[in-house]
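Sanity check

After download, print the first record. It should look like this:
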Amino acid sequence: MATQTMNMVQAINLTLKKELARDNSVILIGEDIGRNGGVFRVTDGLQKEFGEKRVVDTPLAELGIISIAFGMAVAGLKPVAEIQFGGFVYSGMDHIIDHISRIRNRTRGRFTCPMVIRTPYSAGIRALEHHSESMESIFVHTPGLKVVIPSSPYEAKGLLTSAIRDPDPVIFFEPSRVYRAIKEEVPEEDYTIPLGKANVAHEGSDITVISYGAMMKTVLQAFELLKSKYSIEVIDLRTLSPLDEDTIINSVKKTGRCVVVHEAPKTLGMGAEITALINEKAMLNLEAPVERVASFDIPVPFLQMETHYFPDINRVVAGIEKVMNF
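Expected structure tokens:
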């Protein structure tokens, strides 16, 4: 299988190009995604190749982008809507929560909503708070939505292909800090990564460390630092909803210890949900309380302060040591 070395921006661009070529019902829609190629150049060159009717530039109106995509989806198209930054998706929350997520249930399956909302999210690029938020828990808490967050270029291509081909709505969060920070070999040919299936990045027997998105890079750095000291099992969730409960519970039953790492604020984050899940299904296997390593319950700080906001390798290592030495 032929491969190319590429970053996440290039991997997502290649995925969109292939899906536009494979399926005439796929439509891209968003602000500046055509002539300008998107704020991060993720859609660069696609309007020139596929035309203005397949790659549609819109005004700066997130509610309009999301509502038009919803109409396209129930009419039989497969829109991929781009929101320039995650914090701007709130403008479309009425349609996302009240209509997009519910249309299959509301119509008893007569209508589905095969659409994807792509948006960069998370801190680390010196942007303002609405450009840096991690709001995934809001959507995980909304029945009817799938929530996907890739951690690398390879993961992004396989997961986005599955998201576009999914019959139901998918929120696809792209960690902006990873966009150009990681390069790896990515197959040029089609491949899919199933939604709802986590990846065991490293197998281990002493402790389970669970994360996703941009924090996977930090977790893997902590793994390299501690791998001669502890046998660490590292799990990349990939999909937050539906959550791969079996992989989590089977791992914790094996190791008896768990640390959950995420960039979103700690309160009611994925760490809280995973801790509750472990308490329900693997409580008697635990050798120590589950530890959450997360960002603080404040808005994302400006500029140089943001690196003190999300967990760094020292906080992840401290979390692992705390659980191992309980």
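If your output differs, re-run the checksum step. Summary of this record's structure: The chain has eleven helices and 14 strands.
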